[in-house]
Every structure is written in C-alpha cells, then in structure tokens.
Description:
Distance between the termini: 28 Å
Strand content: 25-35%
Number of helices: 10
Radius of gyration: 24 Å
Low-confidence stretches: none
Bound molecules: zinc ion
Shape: elongated
Helix content: 25-40%
Mean pLDDT: 96
Amino acid sequence: MTATQERTTELRDQLVAWRRHLHMNPEVGFHEHETSAFIEAELKKMAGLTVTRPTETSVLAVLEGSTPGRTLLLRADIDALPITEENTFEFASKNAGVMHACGHDGHTAILLGVAKLLSENPGEVPGEVRMIFQHAEEIGPGGAEELVMETGLMDGVDLVTGLHLSSQLPAGMVAVKPGPFMASPDMLELTIQGRGGHGAHPEEAVDPIAVGAQVVTNLQHIVSRGVAALEPLVISITSFHSGTTHNVIPDRATMLGTIRTFDPELRNRAPELIERVIKGVCDAHGATYELKYEFGYRALINTDWVAEQLKEIALETVGPELFRDAKPTMGGEDFSAYLEKAPGAYFNVGSGSDEQDSRWPHHHPRFTIDEDSLETGVKMLHAAALRLTMPE
Ligand SMILES: [Zn+2]
Ligand SMILES: [Zn+2]
C-alpha cells in the first residue's frame, strides 16, 4: 500500500461520519443553508485552503499548488430530493419529506476527503485545485449553470472532473466512457383545448381526453419511425390530467413530458417534430392546443482524452477487475454546464451491494450507498488531482 492509500484508508471513519451527518440533515436545491454551513466549517478546519461562497448555498475551496501546472475543477453536488425516506437506520433523514436519495451526501463527503488529503500535503500537487460544492443539481435551471454564468468559477480552469455514485454498479467499481455519456433532459407542457359536454353525447363535444390519448401514442411514432434507430431519443409523457367525474366530458387536458437526446441537432429538431404531431392530431379532431417547450441541461459529452486519463487512473487505483467501460444513460446532469467551458470528463463509482442493501434505484425512498464506495471516490479524485494538474 502506498503512503497515499494508507492516508486515504485512515480517512474512512471521517468519511462515514461526514456522510451520515449529511444524510441525516438533507436539504433540497437552493435551500442548502445548513449543508453549506457544515461544509464551510469542515473546510475551514483544514490548513491551506481558501474557502469562499460563490453563491448563497454553494462553497468553493481552492488549493494553490507549489509549482506551475494546470487548474483543475473538482465538483460535488450537495442537494437532496423532496422524497420521504423509508430507510430505518439511525442516520435516516430528520427533515420530513426530504432525503438524500441520489448519493449527493456521498459526493460531498468524498470531496471533503479529497480536500483533507490535499491540504495535508500541499506540496504534492502542482497548479491549482478548485473544489466546488455545488448546490441544486436536482432542480432546474441547476446550480452549475448559475456558477458558470454568474460567478468567475470557470475563469482560468483548464480541466474539470467529478463523479456520481451508482447503485447499479458493484461498490468500488469505477466506470468511465469517452464521448456522449448523459442525455439532455428537455421538458414539455401541453394543454389540449377541446369542448366540454355530457358524457352521453360526445358528438356534441370535442373530447380532450380522446385527443390527448392519440397524441400520447402518436408521439412514440416519432421515436420509432421519424428518427434513425441508432440515434437515441426518448419521449415520455409523465403526467396527464383531465376531468373530474364519470358523466362529464371535460374542456381540456394537460400533460407534462420529458424529451431526452444526445445529438444537439436532433435536440433542436425535436420541438418541431413533436409540435407537428400534436398539431396534426388536434386539427384532425377539432381541438386546439398550447405547447410550452423548455430546454433543460445540455447533454453531457466527455472529452475523449480526459476520459482516457481517468481510465488509466482507475486501472492504477482500483485495478482492471474493478474497472468497466461505462454505458451511456438517458439520465441528465448539470455537470454538462462545466464542460461547455473546459474539457473534462464525468465518471461513475459503484455503490451497490447486497450486504448493505444498497442496490435500490436512485431517487427511491430506500436508496442508500455502500459506504466502502466513499474511499474509492476519494482515491479516484485524489489521484485525478495529482495527475490532471501536471503541466502539459
Ligand atoms: Zn438524482
Ligand atoms: Zn444525482
């Protein structure tokens, strides 16, 4: 075991304590007041870091290296979700209706661990390491966008990396992939305006439920017939509300949905494809509509050479048995905002295990992590900090 590995292993108790404190005290996006105060206080116990608050609930720690090199941004997201936790362990959420169900408590503990290691050995890293504890990943327009657009966080940043724990991978496994990694999660809101009437006399009404049902099924025609099979596109109508009782045809139906793509060209074309179907179906049946379409986070496209570096780091850090080429996912991530400004790559660290019952999906009320994954995360980001700050 190297000296670095030994130090990291000693951190284990501390990592678990941080993670459990955060897990017990979750806060949703833009409201991370206690969370950010806790992070700031812990960082201020560490020597040699400059700690600031770029926004009200985010925290930045900067470590200046001893020799010239690159400036690297490491990112952890810190927000929780509006979910009622169903876990019963002693560090379950104390905040009713709020839960760390995505692993951001783990991400925060991991980055605190990296800050501690770096602060204990400031001479070992060249360049500059910026560690951003980012607010509001789970809620649009997202904390990353605010940090990138409204603070100087990215000024002078050469490279960026960060990780997401994954309950779908075995604890301790690292997965990286070059190129497209996560999709752009865009949104639609649709109102179909019909004409209400008596349930017994649909001929005198324009039934927005019947029209809406046609719209829902016809939208899938775009996916299966309108776009090439090898070009990923998901359209999901996730909310459909209409009517109040059994004998009244309602006036209108409202729907919400999500549209996921990787390719920016397809992303830009999607609103037109979707509206053409909605308009066609509504015209055919005498209904009208109002469509609101909103672009969410950009697709997350890893820079190939940075992903290759992370793969090499993973092979050295966890070994080939615990490395896997990551699969792309249609999930979204506002880490993509940083990649608009600097090359970089995002990767996964497995947190699933049967022993710790941590294979529940992300955003599930039983979600939790195998805490062994915290050490893996620290080792990966610490090694990345040493390697990626090296001068070119
Ligand atoms: Zn999430
Ligand atoms: Zn997440």
